[in-house]
Amino acid sequence: MAAVDRFNLLYREISRSCSVYVEALAIVGAWYTVRKCLTLVFDTYSMLRLHVIPKLVGEIDIVKRYGRWAVVTGSTDGIGKAYAEELAKRGVNIILISRSKEKLEAVSRSISETYKVETDFIVADFSKGREAYQAIKEALKDREIGILVNNVGLFYTYPDYFTNLSEDMLWDMININIASANMMVHIVLPGMVEKRKGAIVNVSSASCCQPTPMLTIYGASKAYLDYFSRALYYEYASKGIFVQSLTPFVIATKMVACSSVTSKRSFFFPSAEEYASHAISTLGLSKRTPGYWKHSIEDKELILQYIVAFNGYFTAKARSKFISSALKSSDIENWRIVPRNNPASDYPSDFEVIQINEKQKDGVLTLEDHPNIKRVTPQRKVFRSLKYSDLVYSFAFEIIRGLAVPFKKCGDESVYNVETFLLQ
Ligand SMILES: NC(=O)c1ccc[n+]([C@@H]2O[C@H](COP(=O)([O-])OP(=O)(O)OC[C@H]3O[C@@H](n4cnc5c(N)ncnc54)[C@H](OP(=O)(O)O)[C@@H]3O)[C@@H](O)[C@H]2O)c1
Questions:
Q1: Which segments constitute the Membrane-bound transcription factor site-1 protease-like N-terminal domain (predicted)?
Q2: In whole angstroms, what is the distance from residue 37 CA to residue 31 CA?
Q3: pTM for this structure?
């Protein structure tokens, strides 16, 4: 009892001398809680303002606010086509720009018949650089353009290391993803400024918010678009021009068909039509938004981590798909991908190995000679960096499967780093 008394005494003494610290901590705690609550309230309000209220109060008159004609680049498929249709639904006349004349004719006819608006199209290949714009300038000369949607974009055929990309790919990415938006704005914006009204929508991507290894130049080009849009907004808002940066996460279009997960519409991955109908209702309301409420939390720390994790997952999946077809086309059937961890990276696709059954040595040679394979390098180094636990796991796994690939074989030419099996 005496001991307890002494303890209570001690505790009271300590509390008294620390009371000032306890109070300081209580103030910090209260400040943090209030801040978090206010953030939650503001976030909820802006989500409602952007995605719910416009649906309740009805559509704004886009023609009256911005003008009668809209130009949409990359508009024969995916988001561009769906966005053009949404604009047409609201009475806006549409000028489509893409590469394929047949597709342009078909989409143009379908929009004008369905929505009873005027349509026109310009055949242009943005990968050609400067030469593409003379025709566009000519075609748009006498048109009063109220809305410009810079949607055209190029993605990787499959995620890959920067140095594996061809020079053509580098220039295409710059010309299509970056230069096209610059040039289109340069052509159209003076007319908008003259009328003191207009809207420019630049379709960036959630990839603009994080570095995207293995999709390096795609993410970097989207970061360019995002900064370009945000700066333009400040330059031209006072002149009546609304510039919006759209930063969607995955939309199930043919662009992301290289992974079976992203090619299908699902709860988080809307179809292009679903996406466009949400995105258009944010026009004039938010200068930077994913345009879709389920993607709206992407600015938060948690979702940024999610993007990193998803990017790793997507990269691994898409690469595996291409590697599989490369191996299959080389008549190598008996192989498997062994996932493993490397503490130096978050990106799993860098750290997988392929085991090819020893009997298929001829197959390995075929693989080396195969025209679709860039290079095949035996990766003894890879074996050395394998963690002990992974080796044990992979050995046990082999025994269970009854394959019993001798363990020591992992270090020789039957093990290849995934990066070495890539389609041209
Ligand atoms: N899908 C996604 O998950 C996602 C996510 C975030 C952001 N984005 C961005 O959204 C935009 C549209 O993507 P999407 O998924 O709708 O793409 P998509 O389905 O592949 O459609 C691309 C469109 O661009 C046209 N196009 C392609 N290369 C062209 C070129 N060199 N010159 C002129 N037109 C060209 C294509 O038509 P032709 O082949 O007939 O020319 C097609 O109409 C892109 O900027 C993309 O980066 C997409």
A1: 305-380
A2: 10
A3: 0.75
